[in-house]
Specification:
The protein has 446 residues and is α/β, with parallel strands linked by helices. The chain has 13 helices and 11 strands. It has a single domain, classed as Alkaline Phosphatase, subunit A (3-Layer(aba) Sandwich), CATH 3.40.720.10. The strands form 3 sheets. It has a 7-stranded parallel β-sheet, sandwiched between helices. It has a two-stranded antiparallel sheet with strand order 8-11. A two-stranded antiparallel ribbon has the order 9-10. Helix 11 packs parallel to helix 13 and helix 12 runs antiparallel to helix 13. It is found in: Cell membrane. One of its GO terms (cellular component) is plasma membrane.
Length: 446
């Protein structure tokens, strides 16, 4: 028999089939095991009592870039981190009684960005790529088209109804998703006045950071983005010698100080480190602005728990402050760095960000009463990350497929479709047999 790539693939499949069967749990070989599980699932649905109450609070969790593949891979990784096979793991998100799908296209593109999607799910209006809090009549980067085409968000509606409101994000607070809750901008990139073209300024457009203070009275603001709030050249308190972390504003304004002065007569705290954050008493605090990085927050796996709080800790502090309002609250919590990790081809980071995001959801549910709180979890768009190659049950989701390519070299179970998926070295793919793919490396591997 000739040994061809097709022959090798057939033999591999036969061997893998037998090996996979040998790894199965004994109870899973019994049909009653699966029928019993199905009956329990059906009964839990039948026993569910419809909640017809009017919601007093809204917890809105947004996993930026967290598509179905990311969600599935993160579920498996969570289980594997607990020494389980992973596939049968139940995430907090899996326990919600209702599930739906959303079409994410923007008015001008099949594939949206986080600015267009945030405007859609926060303001209820589809719009154009790169624009925030405006209708599709506004054009990307053209200030004149912004005027008269502003649309308001659910955060403002909640505030106008007398509720307390807040935003928590792992990105900068001026980033696309949080910004759509309070800003109106023809460009998502106008973080500070230094980013706004002079022509746009003449036409009356203002930067997103200044709108954070002026548009809606937000009770809790947490994330990153310090450098967009302070005058150009201002040394960052955490990284004083890093020039890229210094203030960017050309107008000389210190928005953190302005924010504090605007809250005269109230207990308003501005903090930038975990020690001061931990010292904030939610029971006596009216307003909190916490900006923990000059730009976006660190990835969860890089975060120093002694220096920066987690998304779980931020969510808890926000809920405890906001829930004091007898009229209720609206809180937006964004797992924003899921998306950014995927953009860099860093599946390891993206999945760990998703797990941390799921932990924040669990904390939100723990701190609220489902009879008076509507909790929504969704993604704004997905990423071209895929599963490949018939991996064994329980095999590391960040590992390599047991099947090899026709070049007799292994490939990873997870792959990105917005690139070649591989690198060429001397005209061929590198051999990954001795490469630990379950690390913080970028895909494709070098």
């Amino acid at each position: 028999m000739a040994w061809t790539p097709a022959t090798a693939l057939s033999v591999s499949l036969l061997l893998l089939s037998g090996f996979a069967q040998s790894r199965g749990k004994i109870e899973e070989e019994n049909p009653e095991f699966w029928r019993s599980q199905a009956q329990k699932s059906l009964q839990s649905v039948l026993d569910r009592k419809l909640n017809t109450n009017v919601s007093r609070n809204i917890l809105f969790f947004l996993g930026d870039g967290m598509g179905v593949t990311t969600y599935t891979a993160a579920r498996i990784l969570r289980g594997q981190l607990q020494n389980q096979s992973g596939e049968e793991t139940v995430m907090t998100m899996d326990t919600f009684p209702s599930v739906g799908l959303a079409k994410t296209y923007s008015v001008d593109f099949q594939i949206p960005d986080s600015a267009a999607t945030a405007t859609a799910f926060l303001c209820g209006v589809k719009t154009n790529l790169n624009t925030i809090g405006v209708s599709a009549a506004a054009r990307n980067g053209i200030c004149k088209t912004q005027k008269g085409n502003e649309v308001t968000s659910i955060l403002k509606w909640a505030k106008d109804a007398g509720k307390s409101v807040g935003i928590v994000t792992t990105t900068r607070v001026q980033h696309a998703t949080p910004a759509a809750s309070y800003a109106h901008s023809a460009s998502r990139k106008w973080y500070s006045d230094a980013d706004v073209p002079e022509s746009a300024k003449k036409d009356g457009c203002t930067d997103i950071s200044s709108q954070l203070l002026n548009n809606t009275d937000i009770d809790v603001i947490m994330g990153g983005g310090r450098k967009y709030m302070t005058p150009r050249g201002t040394k960052d308190p955490e990284y004083p010698w890093d020039f890229l972390s210094r203030g960017r504003r050309k107008d000389g304004r210190d928005l953190t100080k302005e924010w504090q002065s605007m809250k005269a007569g109230k207990v308003a705290r501005y903090v930038w480190n975990k020690a001061d954050f931990d010292a904030v008493d939610p029971e006596t605090t009216d307003y909190l602005m916490a900006l923990f990085e000059p730009g976006d927050l660190r990835f969860e796996v890089d975060r120093d728990p002694k220096v920066d709080p987690s998304i779980v800790e931020m969510t808890e502090k926000a809920v405890r402050i906001l829930r004091k309002n007898p009229k209720g609250f609206f809180l937006l919590v964004e797992g924003g760095r899921i998306d950014q990790a995927h953009h860099d081809g860093r599946a390891y980071m993206a999945l760990h960000e998703t797990i941390a995001f799921d932990d924040a959801i669990a904390k939100g549910l723990e701190l609220t009463d489902e009879h008076e709180t509507l909790t929504v979890v969704m993604a704004d768009h997905s990423h071209p990350i895929t599963f490949n190659g018939f991996p064994f049950r329980g095999q590391s989701i960040l590992g390599k497929s047991p099947l090899w390519g026709t070049d007799f070299k292994p490939y990873t179970t997870l792959m990105y479709g917005n690139g070649p998926g591989y690198k060429l070295a001397n005209g061929s793919r590198p051999d990954l047999r001795d490469v630990d793919t379950s690390t913080r490396c970028r895909f494709p591997f070098s």
